[in-house]
Amino acid sequence: LKMMTLFQRLFVPKRQFSTTALLNWIHLKTRFRVVDNSDLGKQAMLSGKPPYCIRVYRQGRLGKATNRGQLGDKILVAIKGELRRAYIVGWKAHHSQIRHGVPRSDSNNIILLDANENPLGNKVLVPVPAWLQSNPDLAKIVQSASKVV
């Protein structure tokens, strides 16, 4: 290992900052990281073109559709020229949006779904929040997760 000089340790800025801003909600064109072991997700992440949100399937106030998504919501993403549905399982949320006991992740994470609303991969590679277990649609995702926090 190369020894750092005293000057380098004190005055060279370290890369302890984030290149993406914190979000109040998930909206259109938000980019995601695929955290399951599906082939489509691996190809998209290796090609350098991560999927992005096209539509949020969520009801807002008064039963009207909204474009704002949060953790656990179903969304439509464009990935490698295809349209796929996905669930948001990690959210780089602003501190005012974090619920008590829900950990904040370093990136916006999704799990891809197939046509029958089942997870495309058979394993989730990152920890998922435990409160997602209360949603019956997300039961398969939480069971396939390596860790629940």
Automatic annotation (TrEMBL):
InterPro entries: Ribosomal_uL14, Ribosomal_uL14_sf
Gene Ontology terms: cellular component: mitochondrion; ribonucleoprotein complex; ribosome
GO biological process: translation
Main location: mitochondrion
Keyword Glycoprotein assigned: no
GO molecular function: structural constituent of ribosome
Subcellular location: Mitochondrion
UniProt keyword Magnesium, yes or no: no
Keywords tagged on the record: Mitochondrion, Ribonucleoprotein, Ribosomal protein, Transit peptide
One Pfam assignment: Ribosomal_L14
Similarity annotation: Belongs to the universal ribosomal protein uL14 family.
Protein name as annotated: Large ribosomal subunit protein uL14m
Native species: Trichinella papuae
Name of the gene encoding the protein in the UniProt record: MRPL14
